[in-house]
Amino acid sequence: MDMPLPRDVPAADNVPDYAVSEIAGAIKRTLKETFGRVRVRGEITEFKRYPSGHVYLSLKDESAKLEAVVWKTNVPRLAIRPENGVEVIATGRIDTYADRSKYQLVIDRLDYAGEGALLARIERLRLRLLEEGLFAPERKRAIPMLPRVIGVVTSERGAVIQDIRTTVARRFPRRILLWPVAVQGAGAAEGIAAAIEGFGALPLDGPVPRPDVLIVARGGGSLEDLMAFNEEVVVRAAAACPIPLISAVGHETDTTLIDFASDRRAPTPTAAAEMAVPHRADLLADVAQHEARLRHGLRAVLERSRRHLMVAERGLPDLPGILGGLRQRMEDRAERLELALPVLVDRKRGALGRLAPRLPHPREGIANRRAALAALFGRSEVGAQRVLARGRTSKALVCFSPAPVRALLRENAVRLEGSGARLGGVSYQAVLARGFAFVQDAEGATLTAAADVPAGARLVLTFADGQVGTTADGAKPGGGRRRDGRDPSVQGALL
């Protein structure tokens, strides 16, 4: 480019004379016109984010370093998050900074420089998180067998959410809550992490039900497309999620860092839905199998118990035989008791007969009591007369009347006669006075049956007024009628 020569420079001298601002402006214009937009491959170093929002960094290779800047208006539009050590391809324009005579690359786009760089970055992050223990097996939780609510973090457009809904409805219909997010591009990682944390922050009894299991999914794509699921913010959110989490990112051959932090990894979103809910037919088959096993077990227990009872029954004594023996013994005792009771009664009657002659007649007792009462009455009369005599001789004494004494004596006499009558009523001598006789053999044994008296036996008959000896002739008595009209064959009771 031709520059005008200053007027004060001799024509012979071809070296131009520039002011600082002029040469700086010329250089800036030259760089812009020569390079325009460029793509620069290099490794990020000296990365720094300022409070103003601008990002400053450098790109380097084996022999050179280029300073670069990302203005804050372009930072949210970057597809990747810049960090030191990552090889990238930066797209932008070359510009100069006149105050310091520096040139720099103004970046408006960042891309990873091939899969090798991406894989190296992912591996470094994986090792660091592994060392922190975020991928430890003991952190893994079991997926609930039959969740009430399933939370899904994925794009609201596309086949992923449809596959999950179809699979759940086919296997075991459950309620599905979708938290729609962008699954790639700028801000995707932050959105995914916020969705995971949002589901985990739902209260158990809130208006929006908290899911029992969480599915984080997206379809297949390139390594760069899946990079949002390799970001540290997403991995940490998955590891800290209080809800059991299933990751289903990409195809079966794709592996992202969220797969290491999740509780279960599914090769596809459809497989994740199959992990989340069981198949209704499988459950019914399991129930039928358990029912069959339970029935078989119960039959085995009953059969085993029946055999034990049979063995125990053989060891028990013969209950019918024992009862039969006891019944026979009881009947024998009853028969012996029936025979022994009359003998016991006869023995007691004999003992009573032997004691009868020794008992005094009630009349004798009554006569003795009357004599004693008469003597007592006589003494009372005499005493009363004496008291009366003394009362007549002494006016100071209280007059005494014998009438109460006589009444008391008469009352006692009546009471004594009543007791005597009752005693006479229960005495065997009163029975003898009614015409009965008390029969004894020569030894004094009481005889109560005619069969007990042999012919020619000596007998002693006791009547009310005395005893008479006689000899049994063995003849039956005549058929004359008794004076009282009773049948002589019916013997009355002695007592």
Automatic annotation (TrEMBL):
Domain OB-fold nucleic acid binding: 18-110
Catalysed reactions, as listed in the record: Exonucleolytic cleavage in either 5'- to 3'- or 3'- to 5'-direction to yield nucleoside 5'-phosphates
Signal peptide per UniProt: none
Keyword Iron-sulfur among record annotations: no
Function: Bidirectionally degrades single-stranded DNA into large acid-insoluble oligonucleotides, which are then degraded further into small acid-soluble oligonucleotides.
Enzyme Commission no: 3.1.11.6
Cellular component GO terms, alphabetical: cytoplasm; exodeoxyribonuclease VII complex
Name this polypeptide is given: Exodeoxyribonuclease 7 large subunit
GO molecular function: exodeoxyribonuclease VII activity; nucleic acid binding
Domain of life: Bacteria
A UniProt-annotated Pfam family: tRNA_anti_2
Entries under NCBIfam families matching the protein: xseA (TIGR00237)
GO biological process: DNA catabolic process
Ranges of residues in domain Exonuclease VII large subunit C-terminal: 134-469
Similarity comment text for this entry: Belongs to the XseA family.
Subunit field text: Heterooligomer composed of large and small subunits.
This protein's UniProt keywords: Cytoplasm, Exonuclease, Hydrolase, Nuclease
Annotated region described as Disordered, given as residue ranges: 471-495
Native organism: uncultured Acetobacteraceae bacterium
Keyword Ubl conjugation attributed: no
Localization (cell): Cytoplasm
